[in-house]
Write a structure and sequence with these properties.
By secondary structure, this protein is α/β, with parallel strands linked by helices. About 30% of the residues lie in helices and about 30% in strands. It starts with a helix and ends with a strand.
Amino acid sequence: MSNERKTHWEKIYAEKSPQQVSWTQSEPSTSLELIKAAQLPLDAPIIDVGGGESHLVDHLLQLGYSDISVLDISKNALERCQDRLGKAADKVEWIVADITQFQPIRSYALWHDRAVFHFLTQKEDRAAYKRLVSNYVSHSLILSTFSLSGPLKCSGLPIQQYDATSLASLFAPQLELIHHKEEIHQTPFNTTQAFIYTYFTPKRS
Ligand SMILES: C[S@@+](CC[C@H](N)C(=O)[O-])C[C@H]1O[C@@H](n2cnc3c(N)ncnc32)[C@H](O)[C@@H]1O
């Protein structure tokens, strides 16, 4: 695990409240809309990569999904999420890992990532991520990043901006871009950030 990366994120979640970080959403509406559109059975394995303190897991549990994993590089983030959920946290698999070094032991029907992949500014990290989604996503990949009109940094770290074309070519030929959508995110401090949401499926050969 990259120590610098982990130290950065542990510090963020030790020091900042959800109202003090730009990515907080009161409701992850677009993610939920895309997840529902995937029409998966409720026992399908779903992973939220870099889930942090997102409320997505709360909504998925409420909707009745029963095989949910949340992965994050920050143990603090996952503990805060677990505290919020209380007993319901026992129904979730919590994975502390740097996604670039994650070694899954099974496939996921649906892989969700909002605002994590864009931190991978090194080619080899993107290649590791592509290997993972190519080999361990069986039905849907929902990936959301800052768009070309979004910020150049997040949480003080440089990010890579994307549009639908650049993401589609990055994940081709193993995954096929089916749908994309732009969204303006309203941060807790009343600024805006332009995101792109993409929905991929594995390409059948
Ligand atoms: C901008 S936040 C987004 C959090 C969440 N996805 C959301 O939409 O609210 C980025 C998250 O990715 C996590 N993260 C950053 N780099 C990571 C990596 N290499 N592996 C796993 N998690 C990472 C951070 O700890 C943080 O929780």
